[in-house]
C-alpha cells in the first residue's frame, strides 16, 4: 500500500516554507492512448493522452517530468518494472525521452505534453507522425521541484525546450507576483500566449538563423535583471547545457541567488541523444 499522505504532506511543507526543494512521488508506469494532437506556435506540438491507466497520475507542481518509452531499433519494446514505489529499468536501458508535464485534467482524463520540434529527433519525429488511437508507455513523474509562492520575484528563462515548463510556471504563479521571463526562439512564429501575471515582464528573444543552443542572446538578456534591494528571487532556467554554464555562474555569483533558491537545468546537449539533464 502506497503512503499517499507522506509526499503530499512534504509538498505542503515546502510550499509553506522559504525555499524550494525536490519532493519524490511514487513512480508509475502507464500505457496511454493518443487522443489528439495540435500545434502550439510553429515550434511545439501538443499531444493529449488519455485512457484508463491515466487514473491516479500524480501532478502537483510545474516542474514535473515523465519518460516516454520507445521500442528498440529492432522493434522490441523493453519496459521497466515496478519495484515498490520506484521502477527497475533493464540493462541496457530502454530508449526513452524525458518531457515536461504540461497539463493534467484528471476530471476529463487528459494529459498534455508539448514536444519541441527539431528534424531528426526521435520523439519529435514520433510526435509529428503519431495519430489518435496510437499508444505509448509513460514512466513517472518521479517527483517535482516544489517552490513556495513567498518569493518576492521569479525569474524564468530558456529556449523552446523550456517553453512548456515556463508556460505552466506562469499559470501557477499568484497573480500579484512580479518577475522576468526570457524565452529564446527562432522568430515570432514560435511565440505563444503566456498567462503571465501583470507584474511579470515577458521578453521573446529571436535568434533568427543562428543554431539553437549557441550564442549569448539568452545570457545577455538575463544579465539585465536587477533585483530590488531587500527583495529575493527564485530563478528557473533550462536549455542547452553548455549555453547555461555562464548563466548559472552569473545567477549564483553576481546576482547572488543561493542554490536552494534556483534550478538551472541542462535539458539537452549538442551531440548527445537523451542527455541526462545537468543541474
TrEMBL record:
<dbReference type="InterPro" id="IPR013113">
    <property type="entry name" value="SIP_FAD-bd"/>
</dbReference>
<dbReference type="InterPro" id="IPR017927">
    <property type="entry name" value="FAD-bd_FR_type"/>
</dbReference>
<dbReference type="InterPro" id="IPR017938">
    <property type="entry name" value="Riboflavin_synthase-like_b-brl"/>
</dbReference>
<dbReference type="Pfam" id="PF08021">
    <property type="entry name" value="FAD_binding_9"/>
</dbReference>
<dbReference type="Pfam" id="PF04954">
    <property type="entry name" value="SIP"/>
</dbReference>
<dbReference type="InterPro" id="IPR007037">
    <property type="entry name" value="SIP_rossman_dom"/>
</dbReference>
<protein>
    <submittedName>
        <fullName>Siderophore-interacting protein</fullName>
    </submittedName>
</protein>
<dbReference type="GO" id="GO:0016491">
    <property type="term" value="F:oxidoreductase activity"/>
</dbReference>
<dbReference type="InterPro" id="IPR039261">
    <property type="entry name" value="FNR_nucleotide-bd"/>
</dbReference>
<feature type="domain" description="FAD-binding FR-type">
    <location>
        <begin position="27"/>
        <end position="148"/>
    </location>
</feature>
<dbReference type="InterPro" id="IPR039374">
    <property type="entry name" value="SIP_fam"/>
</dbReference>
Amino acid at each position: 500500500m502506497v503512503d499517499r499522505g507522506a509526499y503530499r504532506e512534504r509538498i505542503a511543507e515546502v510550499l509553506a516554507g522559504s525555499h524550494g526543494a525536490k519532493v519524490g512521488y511514487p513512480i508509475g508506469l502507464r500505457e496511454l492512448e493518443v487522443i489528439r494532437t495540435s500545434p502550439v506556435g510553429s515550434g511545439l506540438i501538443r499531444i493529449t493522452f488519455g485512457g484508463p491507466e491515466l487514473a491516479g497520475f500524480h501532478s502537483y507542481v510545474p516542474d514535473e517530468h515523465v519518460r516516454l518509452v520507445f521500442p528498440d531499433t529492432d522493434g522490441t519494446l523493453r519496459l521497466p518494472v515496478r519495484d515498490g514505489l520506484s521502477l527497475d529499468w533493464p540493462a541496457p536501458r530502454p530508449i526513452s525521452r524525458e518531457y515536461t508535464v504540461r497539463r493534467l485534467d484528471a476530471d476529463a482524463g487528459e494529459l498534455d505534453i508539448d514536444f519541441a520540434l527539431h528534424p531528426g529527433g526521435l520523439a519529435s519525429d514520433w510526435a509529428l507522425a503519431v495519430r489518435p488511437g496510437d499508444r505509448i508507455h509513460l514512466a513517472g513523474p518521479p517527483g517535482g521541484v516544489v517552490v513556495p509562492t513567498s518569493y518576492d520575484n521569479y525569474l524564468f528563462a530558456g529556449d523552446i525546450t523550456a517553453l512548456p515548463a515556463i508556460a505552466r510556471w506562469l499559470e501557477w504563479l499568484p497573480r500579484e507576483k512580479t518577475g522576468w521571463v526570457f524565452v529564446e526562439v527562432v522568430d515570432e512564429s514560435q511565440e505563444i500566449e503566456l498567462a503571465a501575471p501583470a507584474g511579470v515582464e515577458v521578453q521573446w528573444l529571436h535568434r533568427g538563423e543562428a543554431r539553437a543552443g549557441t550564442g549569448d542572446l539568452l545570457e545577455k538578456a538575463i544579465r539585465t535583471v536587477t533585483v530590488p534591494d531587500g527583495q529575493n528571487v527564485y530563478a528557473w532556467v533550462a536549455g542547452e547545457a553548455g549555453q547555461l554554464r555562464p548563466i548559472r555562474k552569473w545567477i549564483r555569483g553576481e546576482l547572488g541567488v543561493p542554490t536552494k533558491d534556483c534550478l538551472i537545468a541542462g535539458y539537452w546537449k549538442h551531440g548527445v541523444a537523451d542527455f541526462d539533464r545537468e543541474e
